[in-house]
Design goal:
Largest sheet: 7 strands, mixed
Number of helices: 13
Structural class: alpha/beta
Shape: globular
Oligomer: single chain
CATH superfamily of the largest domain: Type I PLP-dependent aspartate aminotransferase-like (Major domain)
């Protein structure tokens, strides 16, 4: 493919923005090469600045459940724009969205809309600390919760040890208020609560970890976490920024039968617009200002355009219930890719999947539940596979540790085309 215009735009962009991008993974650092600059997208296809067309499996990192430019969401946005796009005042659009959201998801008594998943997580953590009057946060190694200081940390060197900063600019004092536990480790989880239970304000987990690969967790492990939180008086937060509305209307909370105290949403809840939300039990949510002492505010929170987009998305999800079809399509598609990988790739490969989410693990055929189980060669192997697909007009996430998403706009013809391309890609893969 000719990508000269993308290359020129990237050189210009690096002069005015760090790394030439506004979110790190877009810079192709994990796969090498020059990022393609997208000019437009519709359905499942994106076009770059050079006119190249790609079948998209990134779907803006998950929120485009019905594909790019879904007509219903688009009409809601157009209508909203005729009424004004920011009020900075109370309005009925967020009210109506909240009413229908709470009606659809019984675990939520009240909800507060914000502008991103990171903001939702940050606010929920603050509520939990305000409610429990404790400081310690328990998170899990391999789960990502946005760029919140207290959660952008890595595990300490010893069992149940306090965390250390995973980014420059985060103080060791902030990191010291976070404990990191391994995923899928019942023994370590119990030891942490036995040692620190009375100090833990909140335990936060992605019930379907999908930011460092798709690390499928046992329901029994999640229920053990729920039990320990109740026993020690700690707040349980499910971070469903990716899984909420993507794997089911009620997310993993509904699928597992677990009722977290608080839940955070993002991605799909805005229909592709910048929206996040946190919600849960009334007694916790009424800790939030102006009712309670926990302060959280945002000029663009519950932006009327984004609220209209999200509400249209919610109504379409309720009406169409796309999840059984998406799961069936995902099962077939990843199954076909698995057959080709088994036949042609020079190393064992596993397509881990859950509903419409999938992840290609290059170097093992055993389930991966923890980050230390990810093959050491994953990054290098994925970079080769990624660029080969890209050269054939297929856009997967530009990182071997990110997941892929299907939408209802992906037709069987689209997927069959990708399967034919996959045969060529896998046949040409080299041993690394």
């Amino acid at each position: 493919m000719n990508t000269s215009k993308s290359e020129s735009l990237f050189q210009r962009s690096k002069k005015v923005s760090p790394g030439g991008v506004h979110s790190p993974v877009r810079g192709f650092r994990g796969v090498g090469g020059t990022p393609v600059f997208i000019e437009s997208a519709n359905g499942v296809r994106m076009k770059d600045a050079d006119g190249n067309e790609y079948i998209d499996f990134c779907m803006s990192w998950g929120p485009l459940l019905f594909g790019h430019q879904d007509p219903e969401v688009g009409e809601a946005v157009k209508s909203a724009l005729t009424r004004g796009w920011s009020y900075g005042a109370a309005e009925r659009y967020s009210l109506e969205f909240a009413e229908d959201l709470i009606k659809a998801i019984p675990i939520i008594d009240q909800v507060r809309f914000v502008s991103s998943g990171t903001e939702a997580v940050m606010s929920a953590i603050r509520v939990a600390r305000g409610y429990t009057k404790r400081d310690l946060v328990l998170k899990f190694d391999g789960c990502y919760h946005g760029h919140v200081d207290s959660l952008l940390v890595r595990a300490g060197s010893g069992l149940a040890e306090m965390a250390s900063p995973d980014s420059a600019g985060i103080s060791t004092k902030t990191a010291s208020e976070t404990i990191v536990c391994a995923l899928d480790d019942d023994v370590q989880l119990e030891q942490i609560f036995n040692t620190h239970g009375s100090q833990i304000a909140v335990a936060i987990i992605e019930p379907l970890p999908a930011n460092n690969g798709l690390l499928l967790q046992r329901t029994e492990f999640l229920k053990k976490l729920e039990t320990l939180c109740k026993k020690h008086g700690s707040v349980l937060i499910f971070d469903e920024v990716i899984s909420g509305f993507r794997v089911g209307l009620g997310g993993m909370a509904e699928i597992t039968g677990i009722r977290p105290d608080l839940v955070t949403y993002g991605k799909i809840i805005g229909g592709g617009f910048p929206v996040g939300a946190y919600g849960g039990r009334k007694e916790l949510m009424e800790m939030v200002a102006p009712v309670g002492p926990v302060y959280q505010a945002g000029t663009l929170s519950a932006n009327p355009v984004a609220m209209s987009a999200g509400h249209a998305m919610l109504k379409k999800i309720i009406r169409e219930n796309p999840y059984p079809t998406l799961a069936k399509t995902g099962e077939w598609f990843t199954g076909e890719l698995q057959k080709l990988a088994n036949q042609y790739l020079p190393y064992p490969t596993l397509f881990q999947k859950f509903g419409s989410i999938s992840w290609m693990v290059l170097g093992t055929d055993q389930p991966v539940r923890r980050i230390e189980q990810i093959p050491a060669e994953q990054k290098a192997r994925y970079a080769e596979i990624f660029h080969s697909f890209l050269d054939h007009g297929v856009y997967f996430a530009p990182s071997g540790y990110e997941v892929g998403f299907l939408s209802t706009a992906h037709t069987k013809q689209d997927l069959e085309q990708v399967i034919e391309i996959a045969k060529k890609v896998f046949q040409g893969a080299k041993q690394k």
